[in-house]
Design goal:
There is one protein chain. The chain is globular. It is 32% helix and 15% strand. α3 runs antiparallel to α8 and α4 crosses α5. α5 links the parallel β4 and β5. The two termini are 20 Å apart. A seven-stranded mixed β-sheet has the order 3-2-1-4-5-7-6, sandwiched between helices. By secondary structure, it is of the alpha/beta class. The structure holds zinc ion (ZN). Zinc ion (ZN) binds next to loops.
Protein backbone atom coordinates (compact mmCIF):
# COMPACT_ATOMS: atom_id res chain seq x y z
CA UNK A 1 0.00 0.00 0.00
CA UNK A 2 1.55 3.35 -0.98
CA UNK A 3 2.30 5.96 1.62
CA UNK A 4 -0.48 8.52 1.37
CA UNK A 5 -0.94 11.92 3.00
CA UNK A 6 -4.38 13.56 3.00
CA UNK A 7 -4.92 17.23 3.90
CA UNK A 8 -8.43 18.55 4.57
CA UNK A 9 -8.83 22.27 3.84
CA UNK A 10 -11.70 24.75 3.98
CA UNK A 11 -11.15 26.89 0.87
CA UNK A 12 -9.06 26.99 -2.28
CA UNK A 13 -5.79 28.71 -1.14
CA UNK A 14 -5.70 27.14 2.35
CA UNK A 15 -3.68 24.21 0.94
CA UNK A 16 -1.09 26.76 -0.23
CA UNK A 17 -0.97 28.90 2.92
CA UNK A 18 -0.71 25.98 5.36
CA UNK A 19 1.61 23.06 4.76
CA UNK A 20 2.36 23.72 1.08
CA UNK A 21 6.06 22.96 1.53
CA UNK A 22 5.09 19.72 3.24
CA UNK A 23 2.87 18.65 0.33
CA UNK A 24 5.62 19.46 -2.16
CA UNK A 25 8.27 17.66 -0.15
CA UNK A 26 6.31 14.44 0.35
CA UNK A 27 5.26 14.36 -3.32
CA UNK A 28 8.96 14.61 -4.22
CA UNK A 29 9.71 11.75 -1.85
CA UNK A 30 7.20 9.47 -3.56
CA UNK A 31 4.30 9.83 -1.15
CA UNK A 32 0.84 10.11 -2.72
CA UNK A 33 -0.57 13.47 -1.64
CA UNK A 34 -4.30 14.17 -1.57
CA UNK A 35 -6.07 17.47 -0.93
CA UNK A 36 -9.73 17.78 0.02
CA UNK A 37 -11.27 21.25 -0.32
CA UNK A 38 -14.55 21.52 1.57
CA UNK A 39 -15.95 24.63 -0.17
CA UNK A 40 -15.54 26.52 -3.44
CA UNK A 41 -14.46 29.78 -1.80
CA UNK A 42 -17.49 31.57 -3.29
CA UNK A 43 -17.48 34.23 -0.56
CA UNK A 44 -13.91 35.28 -1.18
CA UNK A 45 -13.15 38.90 -1.96
CA UNK A 46 -10.52 40.10 -4.38
CA UNK A 47 -7.51 40.76 -2.16
CA UNK A 48 -4.99 41.51 -4.90
CA UNK A 49 -5.34 44.97 -6.51
CA UNK A 50 -3.93 43.64 -9.78
CA UNK A 51 -6.89 41.23 -10.05
CA UNK A 52 -9.52 43.83 -9.16
CA UNK A 53 -10.95 44.09 -12.67
CA UNK A 54 -14.53 44.31 -13.94
CA UNK A 55 -16.24 40.93 -14.02
CA UNK A 56 -13.76 39.10 -11.81
CA UNK A 57 -15.87 39.17 -8.66
CA UNK A 58 -18.77 37.60 -10.59
CA UNK A 59 -16.46 34.86 -11.90
CA UNK A 60 -14.99 34.15 -8.48
CA UNK A 61 -15.89 30.44 -8.25
CA UNK A 62 -14.45 29.78 -11.72
CA UNK A 63 -11.31 31.85 -11.06
CA UNK A 64 -10.70 30.08 -7.79
CA UNK A 65 -11.01 26.67 -9.41
CA UNK A 66 -8.40 27.69 -11.98
CA UNK A 67 -6.11 29.08 -9.29
CA UNK A 68 -6.39 25.94 -7.23
CA UNK A 69 -5.64 23.71 -10.22
CA UNK A 70 -2.46 25.68 -10.86
CA UNK A 71 -1.37 25.53 -7.21
CA UNK A 72 -1.98 21.76 -7.04
CA UNK A 73 0.12 21.30 -10.14
CA UNK A 74 2.97 23.35 -8.65
CA UNK A 75 2.94 21.17 -5.51
CA UNK A 76 2.49 18.03 -7.62
CA UNK A 77 -0.52 16.98 -5.57
CA UNK A 78 -1.60 13.46 -6.55
CA UNK A 79 -5.37 13.82 -6.22
CA UNK A 80 -7.89 16.50 -5.35
CA UNK A 81 -11.49 16.24 -4.15
CA UNK A 82 -14.18 18.85 -3.59
CA UNK A 83 -16.35 18.04 -0.62
CA UNK A 84 -19.09 19.97 -2.43
CA UNK A 85 -20.21 22.68 -0.02
CA UNK A 86 -20.48 26.43 -0.41
CA UNK A 87 -18.28 28.94 1.34
CA UNK A 88 -20.08 30.09 4.52
CA UNK A 89 -18.41 33.51 4.52
CA UNK A 90 -17.13 35.36 7.56
CA UNK A 91 -19.56 35.65 10.52
CA UNK A 92 -22.50 38.05 9.99
CA UNK A 93 -22.39 38.11 6.22
CA UNK A 94 -25.15 37.15 3.79
CA UNK A 95 -23.28 33.95 2.88
CA UNK A 96 -23.99 32.45 6.33
CA UNK A 97 -27.62 31.71 5.57
CA UNK A 98 -27.22 29.87 2.26
CA UNK A 99 -28.64 26.34 2.65
CA UNK A 100 -25.56 24.79 0.98
CA UNK A 101 -23.12 26.72 3.17
CA UNK A 102 -20.65 24.34 4.80
CA UNK A 103 -21.44 25.74 8.26
CA UNK A 104 -25.10 24.78 7.79
CA UNK A 105 -24.38 21.30 6.48
CA UNK A 106 -25.66 18.31 8.38
CA UNK A 107 -22.63 17.14 10.35
CA UNK A 108 -23.14 13.39 9.83
CA UNK A 109 -23.67 13.88 6.13
CA UNK A 110 -20.50 15.96 5.81
CA UNK A 111 -18.46 13.44 7.83
CA UNK A 112 -19.78 10.74 5.50
CA UNK A 113 -18.47 12.57 2.43
CA UNK A 114 -15.00 12.74 3.97
CA UNK A 115 -15.16 9.12 5.12
CA UNK A 116 -15.85 8.07 1.53
CA UNK A 117 -12.70 9.86 0.34
CA UNK A 118 -10.57 8.43 3.18
CA UNK A 119 -11.74 4.90 2.37
CA UNK A 120 -11.00 5.40 -1.33
CA UNK A 121 -7.52 6.91 -0.80
CA UNK A 122 -6.44 5.03 2.34
CA UNK A 123 -4.12 7.72 3.77
CA UNK A 124 -1.96 6.77 6.75
CA UNK A 125 -1.65 10.44 7.72
CA UNK A 126 -4.43 13.04 7.95
CA UNK A 127 -3.89 16.82 8.30
CA UNK A 128 -6.57 19.20 9.54
CA UNK A 129 -7.10 22.32 11.71
CA UNK A 130 -7.40 22.56 15.47
CA UNK A 131 -10.69 23.40 17.22
CA UNK A 132 -10.13 27.14 16.70
CA UNK A 133 -9.87 26.54 12.97
CA UNK A 134 -6.45 28.24 13.13
CA UNK A 135 -8.37 31.21 11.75
CA UNK A 136 -11.78 32.39 12.98
CA UNK A 137 -13.81 31.40 9.95
CA UNK A 138 -16.84 29.10 10.30
CA UNK A 139 -15.62 26.89 7.44
CA UNK A 140 -12.28 26.33 9.16
CA UNK A 141 -13.98 25.33 12.38
CA UNK A 142 -16.33 23.07 10.44
CA UNK A 143 -13.32 21.46 8.75
CA UNK A 144 -12.05 20.49 12.20
CA UNK A 145 -15.49 19.28 13.24
CA UNK A 146 -15.77 16.81 10.36
CA UNK A 147 -12.14 15.62 10.34
CA UNK A 148 -12.12 14.43 13.95
CA UNK A 149 -15.08 12.01 13.71
CA UNK A 150 -14.02 10.95 10.18
CA UNK A 151 -10.66 9.68 11.50
CA UNK A 152 -12.52 7.14 13.64
CA UNK A 153 -15.59 6.55 11.49
CA UNK A 154 -13.54 5.60 8.42
CA UNK A 155 -12.46 2.44 10.26
CA UNK A 156 -15.86 1.55 11.64
CA UNK A 157 -17.85 -0.84 9.41
CA UNK A 158 -21.08 0.15 11.15
CA UNK A 159 -20.65 3.79 10.09
CA UNK A 160 -21.41 4.74 6.49
CA UNK A 161 -21.59 1.10 5.29
CA UNK A 162 -22.15 2.24 1.68
CA UNK A 163 -19.07 4.51 1.58
CA UNK A 164 -16.41 1.89 0.83
CA UNK A 165 -14.30 -0.63 2.72
CA UNK A 166 -13.34 0.49 6.25
CA UNK A 167 -9.86 1.92 6.66
CA UNK A 168 -8.05 3.26 9.73
CA UNK A 169 -5.61 6.17 9.23
CA UNK A 170 -2.69 5.93 11.66
CA UNK A 171 -1.95 9.55 12.53
CA UNK A 172 -3.86 12.81 12.71
CA UNK A 173 -2.20 16.21 12.90
CA UNK A 174 -3.24 19.85 13.24
CA UNK A 175 -1.46 22.47 11.18
CA UNK A 176 0.38 24.81 13.54
CA UNK A 177 1.40 27.37 10.95
CA UNK A 178 0.64 30.78 12.41
CA UNK A 179 2.52 30.93 15.67
CA UNK A 180 4.01 33.94 17.38
CA UNK A 181 7.18 31.97 17.99
CA UNK A 182 7.74 31.36 14.28
CA UNK A 183 7.02 34.96 13.33
CA UNK A 184 9.40 36.19 16.04
CA UNK A 185 12.25 33.99 14.82
CA UNK A 186 11.77 35.15 11.22
CA UNK A 187 11.46 38.80 12.30
CA UNK A 188 14.61 38.67 14.44
CA UNK A 189 16.50 36.71 11.80
CA UNK A 190 15.66 39.28 9.12
CA UNK A 191 16.73 42.23 11.25
CA UNK A 192 19.99 40.51 12.16
CA UNK A 193 20.71 40.29 8.42
CA UNK A 194 19.92 43.95 7.83
CA UNK A 195 16.59 43.19 6.18
CA UNK A 196 13.55 45.24 7.10
CA UNK A 197 10.82 43.20 8.70
CA UNK A 198 7.16 44.23 8.37
CA UNK A 199 6.18 42.12 11.38
CA UNK A 200 7.28 44.34 14.30
CA UNK A 201 3.94 46.01 15.08
CA UNK A 202 2.01 42.82 14.58
CA UNK A 203 4.26 41.00 17.03
CA UNK A 204 3.93 43.74 19.61
CA UNK A 205 0.14 43.54 19.55
CA UNK A 206 0.04 39.72 19.40
CA UNK A 207 -1.35 38.43 22.65
CA UNK A 208 -1.21 34.76 23.46
CA UNK A 209 -4.05 35.32 25.92
CA UNK A 210 -6.63 35.18 23.18
CA UNK A 211 -4.58 33.02 20.83
CA UNK A 212 -2.61 30.39 22.77
CA UNK A 213 0.47 28.97 21.09
CA UNK A 214 -0.10 25.44 19.85
CA UNK A 215 2.04 22.61 21.17
CA UNK A 216 4.42 21.66 18.37
CA UNK A 217 5.27 17.98 18.23
CA UNK A 218 6.49 17.77 14.67
CA UNK A 219 8.64 19.97 12.45
CA UNK A 220 9.02 19.15 8.77
CA UNK A 221 12.05 20.72 7.09
CA UNK A 222 10.82 22.31 3.87
CA UNK A 223 13.84 24.50 3.12
CA UNK A 224 14.24 22.98 -0.34
CA UNK A 225 10.57 23.45 -1.21
CA UNK A 226 10.18 27.16 -0.44
CA UNK A 227 9.99 28.25 -4.08
CA UNK A 228 7.16 25.80 -4.69
CA UNK A 229 5.42 27.02 -1.55
CA UNK A 230 5.68 30.64 -2.68
CA UNK A 231 4.58 29.89 -6.24
CA UNK A 232 1.60 27.83 -5.05
CA UNK A 233 0.39 30.71 -2.89
CA UNK A 234 0.93 33.26 -5.66
CA UNK A 235 -1.10 31.02 -8.00
CA UNK A 236 -4.14 32.10 -5.96
CA UNK A 237 -3.99 35.44 -7.73
CA UNK A 238 -7.35 36.81 -6.53
CA UNK A 239 -6.47 36.03 -2.91
CA UNK A 240 -2.83 36.97 -2.59
CA UNK A 241 -1.04 40.17 -3.48
CA UNK A 242 2.50 39.15 -4.49
CA UNK A 243 3.67 42.53 -3.18
CA UNK A 244 2.14 41.99 0.24
CA UNK A 245 4.11 41.71 3.45
CA UNK A 246 3.73 37.94 3.41
CA UNK A 247 6.51 37.86 0.85
CA UNK A 248 8.64 40.68 2.29
CA UNK A 249 11.31 38.43 3.75
CA UNK A 250 13.30 36.47 1.17
CA UNK A 251 12.92 32.69 1.14
CA UNK A 252 16.69 32.27 1.62
CA UNK A 253 16.40 33.98 5.00
CA UNK A 254 13.32 32.00 6.04
CA UNK A 255 15.03 28.78 4.95
CA UNK A 256 17.97 29.64 7.17
CA UNK A 257 16.15 30.76 10.30
CA UNK A 258 12.91 28.77 10.20
CA UNK A 259 13.03 25.97 7.63
CA UNK A 260 10.12 24.08 9.19
CA UNK A 261 6.40 23.66 8.82
CA UNK A 262 4.97 22.83 12.22
CA UNK A 263 2.32 20.36 13.33
CA UNK A 264 0.64 19.05 16.43
CA UNK A 265 0.18 15.29 16.57
CA UNK A 266 -3.22 14.68 18.15
CA UNK A 267 -3.94 11.02 17.41
CA UNK A 268 -1.47 8.25 16.78
CA UNK A 269 -1.88 4.51 16.55
CA UNK A 270 1.87 4.04 16.12
CA UNK A 271 4.65 4.67 18.65
CA UNK A 272 6.34 8.06 18.16
CA UNK A 273 9.04 10.10 19.88
CA UNK A 274 8.68 13.45 21.69
CA UNK A 275 9.82 15.45 18.73
CA UNK A 276 9.22 14.27 15.19
CA UNK A 277 10.72 15.54 11.95
CA UNK A 278 8.60 13.31 9.70
CA UNK A 279 4.81 12.96 9.52
CA UNK A 280 5.38 9.29 8.67
CA UNK A 281 7.51 8.55 11.76
CA UNK A 282 6.39 5.16 13.06
CA UNK A 283 5.09 4.15 9.62
CA UNK A 284 7.11 1.92 7.32
CA UNK A 285 7.90 2.49 3.62
CA UNK A 286 4.96 0.25 2.65
CA UNK A 287 2.54 2.28 4.77
CA UNK A 288 2.27 -0.30 7.53
CA UNK A 289 2.81 0.61 11.18
CA UNK A 290 6.32 -0.08 12.48
CA UNK A 291 6.37 -2.31 15.49
CA UNK A 292 7.55 -0.30 18.52
ZN1 LIG B 1 -9.82 29.44 4.37
Amino acid sequence: MPRTLLAVHAHPDDESSKGAGTLARYADEGVRTVVVTCTGGEAGEILNPAMDQPGNLERMPELRRQELAKALEIMRVGAHYWLGYRDSGMPDTEFNVHPDAFANADLDEAVGRLVRIIRAERPQVLLTYDETGGYPHPDHIRTHEISMPAFEAAANPARYPDAGAPFQPLKLYYHATFTKRRLEVIHTGAIARGIQSPFGEWLESWSNDDWPEPVITTQVDVSRWMAQRRDALIAHATQIDPNSFWFAIPDEVVAEVYPWEDYTLVRSLVPTGDHETDLFAGIGPDGDPLVG
